[in-house]
Design brief:
- The chain has 3 helices and 6 strands.
- It is α+β, with helices and mostly antiparallel strands.
- The protein has one domain.
- Strands 1-2-6-5-3-4 form a 6-stranded antiparallel beta sheet, with helices on one face.
- The radius of gyration is 16 Å and the shape is globular.
């Protein structure tokens, strides 16, 4: 099929990768995921939400980030962080286990996807999210 870069298109709202009929079988809902490609074809999606549900969602977030980092270190082929939406892979960002800026971006995306401030007693306060982002920058 070629390279992933050849598949990235500029849509109205953002850059996207449209899934083929075969690739759609790998798609299981929306959200941030890591997408692994071989010869330009999607072969696997890593879903950070596949962690055990806990009362403290910050523990879930940490587990998801650890699982993603482990998966990323072992994955071969081209890897991208993507927002899955309507059988499209939106905002594809090339992944690299050695790129600190990418890892911060991935952690922030997964944090915002999994973190539930109400479950952790913070109400509508965004201070916890901001504190997490600050810890990533200091990191």
């Amino acid at each position: 099929m070629g390279s992933v870069a050849d598949r990235i298109e500029q849509a109205e709202a953002c850059k996207v990768i449209n899934l083929s009929e075969v690739e759609k079988d790998l798609y299981h809902g929306c959200g941030w995921k890591l997408a692994r490609f071989h010869n330009g074809t999607l072969v696997e999606l890593f879903d950070p939400c596949n962690v055990a549900v806990k009362d403290d969602t910050s523990v879930m977030v940490q587990e998801a980030i650890e699982n993603a980092t482990t998966w990323l270190a072992k994955a071969d082929g081209e890897i991208f962080l993507v927002m899955c939406s309507c059988y499209q892979l939106c905002e594809p960002t090339r992944a690299s286990i050695t790129d600190k800026v990418f890892l911060e971006h991935m952690e922030g995306a997964f944090f915002e996807q999994l973190y539930d401030p109400e479950a952790d007693g913070y109400g509508e306060d965004d201070m916890m999210v901001e504190a997490h982002h600050e810890s990533l920058r200091e990191g």
